[in-house]
Here is the input.
Amino acid sequence: MGVVAKRPPKTASKSGARRPIAESAPRLIHLPDTSLTLARMTNAQGHTINWDKAIARNRDALLRVLAALFAMAGLAGGVTATTLPRHLHNHILRILRAAESAVRRLIVIAARDLVVVVAPRKQAATTTTTSTTSVPAVAALPLLDPRKRFDFRPRRRRAKSFPRICVIGVSEPRPIPEIRIPTPEDAMDATRLRRRLAALKRALDDLDGHAKRLARWRAKRDLGLNRSKYVSPMRPGWPPGRRKRAFHAVDDILTECHALALSLEREDTS
Here is the structure.
């Protein structure tokens, strides 16, 4: 009979001591870059996250990003730019979408323990007084994520040519219209962009006030007084402004804030 060779058992290292097995950090959903940071925060607090420290850390990072956006938009020195080049406007907008989503998730975290009592809605009394002066309302950061729009209709195709019908000797052919192609240096109105930047700055300066706004929205939702049909301020799936490949520091901030808000929702539902 042949001899069957067996694999030798695993032995200790040359020094005689076994190598310690490194404890792997807990895996967090949608958090490839900041999982170790959150893992250290979780282990340091006895398997609980220090929410105040997480809010302060991400708020400071978002304030730095916002200061850079103000400088790019020409608003740092008090100068108001009415127009911006198309390439700069689009670049600021790409960063601003992610920053707004991150701030919304910070507001969700800040409103985790707030309880607000909302009275039932009363019918507004009719008044006959009229005011001649109106104060423009200050734009506030929307608390709800913009939802995805699904359009299954076929894509509209534009005609590349048009008929040039004429009567010989009576009318001339219709002139060919000039098709203007957008260029990166086109001047675009920056009014709406400035309002969104100012609203984001006010939200970061007053996170507690916006957390109370969200708590009132939740209380009205429970009473059925909200006009919106949504249950959560965060939309399902990835947050608005999320990119698969990060190209700016705000992408990592959004990833961490989204993971924190998801973990908070899991704690509330458990």
The two ends are 62 Å apart (CA to CA). The beta strands are 83-85, 187-189.
